[in-house]
């Protein structure tokens, strides 16, 4: 509160006055009779909390809060319920999440080819207005979950549908897209079209495109899709914020933004409808002739246009992050994750498999070591924190190597680098996260037996590597500061299910018996660490830890009330937690009908 430039003695006097004044003046709102889980340094549990002017002015017991309870103070009796810091989602894609809530969606479900076809046909039949040139966009395709395991989907699968329209089906992972033949033609993809940098056109034995596009190759079709209109962008942002409030998310990072998204959120912010603190990471992409310098300059231009300055009580927008992609995804059939050693292939038969090292270990990393080093230094100079997509162990290692160099420079010391995903990390690299102060941002919900782990990862990795996939507790035990990011809409937005998996490493009870039990022999994370990852540690990656992430005096009143106690219920029940109340800057932005 007190700015620098004042003599020390005066600062002391002023702060004493401020404290005395603070203690006497009644609070706006008092929460009492609660299980107030603070996420302070000791993870202490208190009974009561008071808020004034959007900030926390008291955390302690019921007796102590009486002094702050005046005639006009609103008193909320928590009736023993758990109050905790609001969730901070350190990696998500709110705009595509929100807009997918408005598209033809396959809902992340495992589908047979027949079901896949009939679902899309239903969408086509419903949309009678669109002409034969209009793309049908299908989203949330659980590509790894197609049934039976390993079944092929190609343009022919979609050509069987009754339509003249080009179709694009986007995998929920965001790393592949399937086109029908009309789509392939519309995108002008022929056997002579080269693979773009950072992408792959899947081809058959004769060299013809099969319809499946990986990573950057998706742009051949995606660039042809009509951009969302201003109204659609606004609708997507609104839908995203509504979903977040209900889950208890009070701050998020858009891990790959664009000006249209930031424009939509700016509009909502101006209307007072921004109900979460919004952070945006701008993509640094050295394709198309950009240099590290020009890419960072473009980022700063967007920052100038959209960043609204330091965190304040009412939610606002900050642009202080860069997004970089080092690779794609490690699971089949993409294999675009950059691995140290080759993916295995089956040199036997389906009945008598013989898994041996295959011909490749994923693509070259999307940044060369030299380009990554230069880019990180440029970003550090511009006070921008890098948020790097790394899925395979080689992408992780190369990023850590570049950060090690960065740390040796004066501007590199203050950087807060985050490595997102880290699905597989070579054990030799575990301690480097703590040594280099790099935060892994993990999606806990991936650490469960599922078609994309047991089905699309196990055999291709081999037993040694499979034993350490999704190394959440392994990194934690090596001293890393773990933060959480949902990566929505790669999965449905379900933070409480994700936190449950963080603890148990088990699938949902109704996932089927082939997915019963834990993912590998690795331990889950302790509950307190799981909550810290989605509160204070995620706040740290956003440079917001002095204002949020824990319930402590002076911090913003960003908090949630739960319908059951995260710490005392059986671990499986964590997935069923419902948020009753979401408070941002002291203001209630969501209240469930069950909160009396
Ligand atoms: Zn992501």
From TrEMBL:
Pfam families: Amidohydro_3
InterPro entries found in the cross-reference section: Amidohydro_3, Metal-dep_hydrolase_composite, Metal_Hydrolase, YtcJ-like
Domain Amidohydrolase: 74-590
Signal peptide segment: 1-22
Source superkingdom: Bacteria
CDD domains with a match to the protein in the record: YtcJ_like (cd01300)
Keywords linked to the UniProt accession: Signal
Protein name: Amidohydrolase family protein
Organism: Duganella margarita
